[in-house]
Amino acid sequence: QRSKDGTLMDFKGGLFLAAVKTNVPIVPITLHHTHAVMPSNSLFPVQSGAGKLHVHIHDAIETEGKSEEELAASVRSAFLKTLPLEQHPLETIPTAE
């Protein structure tokens, strides 16, 4: 399932289980603003992605000796470093007090 508003959602566990079992590094890839070009309820892009879409390829995350939970946290952290604030999950957006 894709996010309806472009915010980062919880990960599905299969990727991290496979990485732990095979001891293969994970290379996170962040895609920014895909929801603006192709919303989750669309079969085709609704506008051009020129100047809107951004791709960030992160450094590899080694899996040796790490749990699925540790890997998920590392990948999430990598994503949040490059995603714009409007795509952060609500629980990670700093609030003014």
Layout of helices and strands:
Layout: H1 14-22, E1 29-32, H2 34-37, E2 54-57, H3 68-82
Antiparallel strand pairs: 1-2
Put simply, the count of helices is 3
**Helix/sheet category:** alpha+beta
Distance between the termini: 34 Å
What order do the SSEs take from the amino end to the carboxyl end, as H and E?
HEHEH
Q: What ranges have pLDDT less than 50 throughout 5 or more consecutive residues?
A: none
Number of strands: 2
* Radius of gyration based on Cα positions: 15 Å
- What strand line-up does the widest sheet have? 1-2
Largest sheet: 2 strands, antiparallel
**Silhouette:** elongated
Instruction: Let me know the average pLDDT.
Output: 79
Helical content stands at 25-40%
Strand content: 5-15%
Brief sketch in words of this structure:
This protein has 3 helices and 2 strands.
Task: Describe what you observe in this structure.
The structure is a single chain. 29% of the residues lie in helices and 8% in strands. It has three helices and two strands; from the N terminus they run αβαβα. It has helices at residues 14-22, 34-37, 68-82; strands at residues 29-32, 54-57. A two-stranded antiparallel ribbon has the order 1-2.
